[in-house]
Amino acid sequence: MSSFQNNTKKEWRPATISDVAKGAGVSKATVSLVLNNSPSPIKISEATRNKVMDVAKKLDYSPNRLARAFSTKKSNVLGLIASSTFHIFESAYSARVMAGIVRAAHERNYNIMIFDDDVISKNPSSQYFVHLIASRYIDGLIVLGPDRHNPSMTKHASELQKKGMPFVFVWRRLSHVEGTTISLNNALGVRKAVEYLLSLGHKKIAVVTHGEKSKSSGERLKAFKKVMQKNGLAFPEGLIWHNEFHPNDDHKIVDEILSLKTRPSAIFSFYDPIAINIINILRSKNISIPDDISVVGFGDVYPHSYTHPILTTIREPFEEIGQAAVSALLDQVEHADDVSPEQEITINPELIVRDSCSSVKQRF
């Protein structure tokens, strides 16, 4: 027989305002006035205030958030919506941005509620999502804009905007939906990477994007062309590869680069995981990095130990992007009359020089 004799199941039930009132021997109205520190039409003694506070603490009482949201028109909850269709919840990039969002929200005494647009769009009761948010259960919404067109997310965001929901978009704005956008200065990042390679004497630079339909890849490719032309170099049409994340894409791209009659002296990958794979594949083929080929990435999200030599890359300030999103959204929530709901806030990346690049003069 078990030594545990008490078979009574204790029901989990959060304390209510009625429990606090009963424990303190006062009315619910008095409890509300004390806990909210509201002006009172009647005098409440210090002893009564202390008793209410002591009982509330002992019962671990927390006001009903939804009820408070209805009464104060403020919930201190921010929504964060992304889509698992594009594996955004699995991405180390997104995870770092989300960490910045959560940290910044907590510093301002806000909590975060996360929604997956892919799950919502497949649910017959998806209108509940719109109703829940529009009912003021959240004070504003941060949208992690997908790197490819997403009609479902655009539809939901548009419906909420019509109801007056404050919005902030991270990375990019959805089509036909207005709102403040926190974006990375992709053009600056590309310029810093390419000008660094050019300073080392590289002129024949291969580019590997993270998808032909990727919006960020498109922005970076456009910037790459502009920098090359500005420096009097032709846009290398035959040196552009699009990694669509199919099995063996990286191996195929590396094989094609190595099969060229005149190999590029450097490879610029628009996505760190691809750059890391390229380095590892090249090394497996006895190609020395950076002695034979220099490699530059974009992101700086992974530990240095992922590659040898350590990857030179463009650092995206992920946490700063998340913090900027929260700050811009709370400006709208808390100072709606003083802040424009449509701003373009650009965060600048920086070049991080490590060991995967060398001067052409040293190598040839």
Q: Overall mean pLDDT score? A: 85
CATH class category label of the largest domain: Alpha Beta
Total strand count, please?
12
Largest sheet strand order: 2-1-3-4-5-11
- Total count of helical runs of at least 4 residues: 14
The name of the CATH superfamily of the largest domain reads: Response regulator
- Stretches where pLDDT is under 50 for at least 5 consecutive residues are 1-10
CATH fold-level topology of the largest domain = Rossmann fold
Estimate the helix proportion, in percent: 40-55%
Layout of secondary structure:
Blueprint: H1 17-24, H2 28-35, H3 46-58, H4 65-72, E1 77-82, H5 92-107, E2 111-116, H6 117-121, H7 127-137, E3 140-144, H8 151-162, E4 167-170, E5 180-184, H9 186-199, E6 205-209, H10 215-230, E7 240-242, H11 249-258, E8 266-269, H12 272-284, E9 294-299, E10 312-315, H13 318-334, E11 344-347, E12 350-352, H14 360-363
Helix pairs in contact: 1-2, 1-3, 5-13, 9-10
Structure description:
With 364 residues, the protein is of the alpha/beta class. The protein contains 14 helices and twelve strands. β1 (77-82), α5 and β2 (111-116) form a beta-alpha-beta unit. The protein starts with 16 loop residues before the first helix and ends with a helix.
Give structural attributes:
single chain, 364 residues, alpha/beta, 434 Repressor (Amino-terminal Domain), Rossmann fold, 3 domains, 6-stranded parallel β-sheet, 6-stranded mixed β-sheet, 15% strand
